[in-house]
């Protein structure tokens, strides 16, 4: 009987822990969403273009795109 009571206590503890985790995740997601919406409303969404050349200067229109620093995979 003691083992069953221990099992029930552990089970209840795990359920409480899972609920706390869900609440934390929901709160985190809500804060992220609020920051995102506030940022988008204040500034508006802007797409970023790469205007730097290979050394950091302005790009020439006829210049080839930059290569990846990583070797291609086989």
Can you walk me through this structure?
- The protein is mainly alpha-helical and 74 residues long.
- Helix content is 57%, strand content 0%.
- The protein contains one helix and no strands.
- The protein has one helix at residues 2-43.
- The chain is elongated.
- The model has no long low-confidence stretch (mean pLDDT 80).
Using brief descriptors, characterize the structure shown.
single chain, 74 residues, mainly alpha
Helix coverage percent: 55-70%
User: What is the end-to-end distance?
Assistant: 61 Å
**What series of H and E elements makes up the topology?**
H
The value of Rg in angstroms is 26 Å
Would you tell me the overall average pLDDT? 80
Beta-strand content estimate: under 5%
Q: Pairing-aware structural class of the strands and helices?
A: mainly alpha
**Total count of strands:** 0
Which outline best applies? elongated
**Main β-sheet: number of strands, strand sense, barrel status?**
none
**Which residues sit in consecutive blocks of at least 5 with pLDDT less than 50?**
none
Number of helices: 1
Biased composition (Basic and acidic residues): 18-51, 58-67
Region (Disordered): 18-74
Q: What's the helix and strand layout?
A:
Blueprint: H1 2-43
In short:
Residues 18-74 are annotated as: Disordered. The protein has one helix at 2-43.
